[in-house]
Amino acid sequence: MKPRLPLHPQPIYIIGAGGIINSAHLPAYQLAGFVVAGIFDLSPEKAAATASSFNIPQVFSSLEAMVQAAPAGVMYDVAVPGSAILSVLQQLPPGANVLLQKPMGENLEQAAQILALVREKQMLAAVNFQLRYAPYILAAKEIIYSGYIGTLNDVEINVNVYTPWHLWDFLFTAERVEILYHSIHYIDLVRNLLGNPQGMFAKTVKHPAMQQLASVRSNIIMDYGDMVRANIITNHCHNFGNTHQHSYIKLEGDKGAIKIDFGALINYPHGIADRFGYAVTNGEGHTEWKTLAIEGSWFPHAFIGSMAQLMLAAEGSIALPDNSVEDCIHTMACVEAAYAASKLPGVPLSVFDNL
Hints:
This protein is of the alpha/beta class. It has 9 helices and 14 strands. It has helices at about 20-30, 45-55, 65-70, 85-90, 110-120, 135-145, 180-195, 300-315, 325-345; strands at about 10-15, 35-40, 60, 75-80, 95-100, 125, 150-160, 200-205, 215-225, 230-235, 245-255, 255-260, 275-280, 285-290. An 8-stranded mixed beta sheet has the order 8-9-10-7-11-12-13-14.
């Protein structure tokens, strides 16, 4: 399944030349036919190497030089750490169109500052929560919105993999890791499907083999009342081969279900093939599972949708990007609530000592 594309795509100017730009953003833009006109990075060598690999015509020596050269109406793709987003936004012109790499700051306080600055400068800004636009998620939404599986009442995301965290050096000094940089995608997806939850339950913990990192395993419950279950379970420390690694998204309605086995995280960064299955129970109670061939995957194809939403809004085809900062601030609030919940103690057994 493919995302809606703009009628008149504008040139993209990229700020940052890190791994995610090279492995996902730029390959996605090539697939979509989006034009990348320039790039800047604090490391001139990295910017030059990326420009050479992807035929980007201009490499800028400073962000100021990029802003001065860029025509009005272009798309700024800001792929910097969350802690640096505010500084970059302060240097971009009023009214700029901006796609921010997730997370939207390191915490809710920074996210609120980003939102306030975007409003003050009247920018059109979106956040790259791209899992919403993965081809298998677009296919799942089509099935759900058609009513094929009935009313969605159960969402489960379960990840049991080994993640080579050493690929991202900055995480070793980060106060928050797993939820902020990984499960945030799943929290955002659940919000995108079910709306904002009533509250969050969570516990996120470290691992003995990864003690130099903050928490790398999480259990998250998003509270949607008594009739809807939304669970996220992640373990990034299953270093026992690929046999029992798994990563899936299961969506159940009152008429049927969808099971997406997404392979990007298995044997990362190599990955394995995705699998998409869906089932419907007929009037006689018979359930049949079917498979659906999906073209494309999370990386890099989902990254087309994030930028496309910004372009669609900029050209006036939609009022706001689906992934606007006005929407994504609520994902950041869920993340903050999850970390707050993780610090709370469980119900002590001493309460029941009189039994």
